[in-house]
Amino acid sequence: MSEASVNSLAERLVARFGSMLSSVDTRLDQVTVEVDAGDLLTVATALRDEPDFDFSQLVDLCGVDYLGHGQAEWDTGSVSATGFSRGVQGEAAGRFDWEGRPIGIDLPRRFASVVHLLSVQHNRRLRLRTYCDDNAVPLLPSLTGLWPSANWFEREAFDLFGIVYDGHPDLRRILSDYGFVGRPFRKDFPLIGNVEVRYDPERQRVVYEPVTSVVPRVLVPRVIRDDADLEQARAEAADHWQEN
Q: Which of 20, 134, 152, 221 is the most exposed place for a label (fewest CB within 10 A)?
């Protein structure tokens, strides 16, 4: 959307919903509004039904885990002089084994559900974000009664993040196995997983066992910089090959 259209939509939202909006952001040519869980259905219904908004389509819905948000494991303040850099500092969320996993994390507003809406009538898009009040049992109202397309999206967020959508007609896993342990998109889920599966020829069946064949490791991309020393080395190497 154009800057004028973005600002116009933001002003209309503030005028209509007022204190029901926790925040309104207009960065990157898109409007993002935050709504408390208790006001979600009221605001969503108005966004769909009122002619000034007419967001008739729910394009996407996803879960978000803000554990470790704003923290970085990359050293961006200093670089090496040799043309290569390994800037990993410590361990980021997920780089641990099951015994060393974080326990008892208390992070306010850790989980959120983000909805992307489209108004075909007005050619506008809107991002709607709602944080869960309880990290132990992340609970939000289901939007399937307003936009049926939310059905599988909410099942995906439930499967991967453990967000429970109250009122969903068939809330169950959609991507992982029925016996899968944990929520794989949570930041405190080990990158190696909790269990591994193999076929046991003696028992003649598939068995689940603790992960032993995978070791957590940090994969660091190699960075080649175009600095003066490297350019001079390339030039000297080219001259050497030409002379010989």
A: 221
Q: Looking at domain 3-66+82-243, which CATH architecture does it have?
A: 2-Layer Sandwich (3.30)
The CA–CA distances, whole Å, from 143 to 57, 161, 201 equal 12, 17, 47
Would you say 112 and 132 are in contact if contact means Cβ atoms under 8 Å apart?
Answer: yes
What is the DSSP secondary structure assignment for residue 88, as one 8-state letter?
B
The rounded distance, in Å, linking the Cα atoms of 84 and 6 is 42
Terminal Cα-to-Cα distance of the chain (whole angstroms): 60
* Distance from the Cα of residue 155 to its chain's centroid: 15
For residue 235, give every residue at least 6 positions away whose Cβ sits within 8 Å of its Cβ, in sequence order, or none: none
Q: Give per-residue pLDDT as tens, 80-107.
A: 555 444 455 555 565 655 566 566 566 7
Q: Is the dihedral of CA 101, 103, 108, 111 positive or negative?
A: positive
